[in-house]
Amino acid sequence: MNRTVIRCIAAALGLLFLYTLALGSRRAIMEAQHERYGPEIPFTLESALYYRRVKIVYDTGVLPAHDPMVQYPEGINPWTTYTAGAEYVYAALARLFPTHIPVPERVRFLEAAWFSLGAPLLALGLYGWRRRVGAAALGGLFHAIAISSVIRSTGHELSHENFALPLLIAHWAISVSAPGLATPLRRRIAEVAAAVLLALALCSWDMVQYYIGLRLLHRAWRISRPAPGAGEPAASRGWWFEYAALWAVSVLNPYHQAQGFLLSAVMGLAHGVALLVAFHARFAGPGAKRIAFRIATVAAGCLATAVLHRWLAPPEAYGHFGELLWAKLRFLNVKPADPALLTFNQRILWVPALNSTDWALARLLFPALLGLTIPAAFLVWCHSRKSPDSRAGELVFATVVTIAAFWLFARFHVYLSLFSCALLGVAWSQLATTRFTVRAVAGLAVVAGLAMETLHTLRHPGRWGRVNVYFKEVNELTAWLNSQAAPDPVLANFGVSGSIAAYGKCAIILHPKFENAGLRQRVQAYGETLFQGTEKDFRDWADAHGARYYVHAFGEFSRESPELQMRYFVNTLDPAPESAARGFEFAPRDRTWFVHEWSNVKYAVFRVITRADEALAAREVARAEAAFATGDLAATEQACLAAMDHFPRQPRALELLRMASALKASGFRAGAEADGT
After folding, report:
1. pLDDT tens-digit profile of 132-145?
2. pTM of structure
3. CA-to-CA distance for 406 and 364, rounded, in angstroms?
4. I want to staple 136 with a disulfide (CB 3.0 to 4.6 A). Which of 127, 160, 260, 296 is the partner?
């Protein structure tokens, strides 16, 4: 056996080890969650709706163009509402499992298994770029075991990012490896493959736009600087493949087409960079005029796109995210206690996972990795000053910007973890030329950091599940709705609506998808009516949206974390005594327009007394009035009870029933006056 074969076998075993470690750590946490919460852990929030779509494809083989059960009564188009497509992959692979394994557990395993591909892919990219086994091993190990990478990819919940990130890592791995390929043809093939993978990742998760934006900003700066690095024009040839891929996504993908991605800020920057690359050969080299022209070219592309965006793009295309960013900058990243200082969008979006990061959360997610990343970034930056490499500069730039983004939005820990792992691998490869003592100290620090991350992840794995979720109570609620209410439309807060649709099999009026401006407005109207209106006002709103049942989640007046409650979101921290919310919270069985049907310690289900119910009850009351006028007490009671079947607290029916009962008790009978008794 020659040396090449031995190296290939060793590399394959190393990659298999990384994959096994990544998948094993995630499954260990998932098993701990089962021990803690039981075998039936429901998906929640958007994750529940994601699973529901996977199950639809699993059962029927197709994702419909219209789903009337979500955002009832008008329904939604799943293809334009979500970054759909991964459902087909999960459904196809789930059919390969033994039939005795529940479908939710198959999907949980598949998500963790798919995401775990990122560790060996990252290692391959680092090796293809740096040609150092140590760099590949280090980056792959941290990505496999660091809690910042593990925590959202155990399968506990489904997310679009977990499907997209392996595609994005594969794109990055090919991109950084392509310049080292032996022939121009291989480089072109690699660039095309990288562009296709980038497009697939973007189709799977809209936040891939963040990565694309960083990449574009760095490229614009790289080409616009007075003395671009050697080989930049050649590298720019591969840019056209990525630009074409972005155009394809803009035009062909239903979700991004609906969001107006072609005229988004990211694509505006792409158009500017495309102009810059097109004119680079003519205006290359130093000179103030040429530099000014290059900068003006990018600005013109961005400005033209912004103007077109204002007139042509959908109004809800990510404006809410910019609104939240402005609030965080304005209030120095601290959510104000007074909700009046924020808009509704800012209040309701400033929650996990878009909450601000503090030191406690940073230590929880990055016990060692972030501390190693900062010196690694400094080392790579210093090295790139001596040996220019646009790939290293781009990675350092992305890491530094993402640290700031992570401090503003905890959700960006996903990107920070990925960039940090890659940066550690690059930094380690650059230590190869330093003195032995420096490498030894750095090696000890890296080993200690890896050990700390491993212990942090695998010690007490049960703590890494979703907190503040009543899994048992959600299962009880959805089981009752499935058997007693399905498929009737249900009004419930967006925290439990997804589970009601997925497991309760009921249509839902609200659902947790805030990229849709119409849904945000509906949630706002729901909250304001619940906390600022009377019970009758809330009934009228629910009935106008077709609700047959209302699910109330107790705890709306908890003193703990009021900034995470709906009363904060609608700027009503102390609702009036007659508000609908107070009635549901403190006297759920004494409602007039809502009939209490079922409850547990967390949720109560009410049947809505609709206007149609009122009309039917009014007819029976009229019949009871006529019967009472003739002295027919039995018919009066019968009509009153029929009215109360539709409207249990119908005031006139209750009055007539009391009067008829009192007369019967006194011995009154029809025709008594004629008999003289």
Report:
1. 899 999 999 999 99
2. 0.90
3. 13
4. 127
